[in-house]
Amino acid sequence: MEQYFSATQKMEQEVMFPSLLRGVFPQEEGAAPAAESRTDLYERYQLLKAIKPMVEKGLASVGDQSPSGADADGDTSLDSNGAEDAQLEERLSQHLTGLQQVLSHLTRDTNALTRRYSQILEQINLSEGQPSW
User: Is the N end or the C end of the chain the one with fewer CB atoms within 10 Å?
Assistant: First the structure.
């Protein structure tokens, strides 16, 4: 989670001119651009910026929930509670694994976008330093 927030903060600090990302398509390391990926890095930048508040809001709402009404039905047997608890634990584990995978993917995309933006700026700086005669 920390890596995701760190990556998005770095992206927001470094990408000063997001319009430079228009028409630039993502590439996997050492691979040709994917034909099915027709979203440019500008669109990905907009998406990553839109996702961040949703993730932050989701974390805040999880912290605001209280477990006070969770045991309203006190007539259930201990055996069924044990089985239900095991099911809930398994579902929570699957959910957290999925969430971790999504955040890892978003972090990787954010870092790749930031790296590519830095490369674009380097190319611009190098071309400005060349004499145009």
Answer: C
b/e per residue 36-60 (b: at least 16 CB within 10 A):
eeeeebbebbeebeebbeebeeeee
For the stretch 25-72, pLDDT in tens is 987 654 445 555 678 999 999 999 999 998 888 776 766 665 554 454
Higher pLDDT among residues 11 and 73, named by residue: 11
62 burial via Cβ count (<10 Å: 0-12, 13-18, 19+): exposed
Q: Residue with structure tokens 């634990």?
A: 89
> Rounded to an integer, what is the distance from CA 71 to the centroid of its chain?
34
Concatenate the DSSP letters of all residues of 59-83 into one string: HHHHHH--GGGTT--TTS-HHHHHH
Which residue's entry shows tokens 């989701």? 58
Give CA separation, 79 vs 7, 67, 71, 101, in Å: 45, 21, 15, 33
The DSSP 8-state label assigned to residue 38 in this structure reads -
As a whole number of angstroms, the distance between CA 61 and CA 47 comes to: 21
pTM of the full structure: 0.70
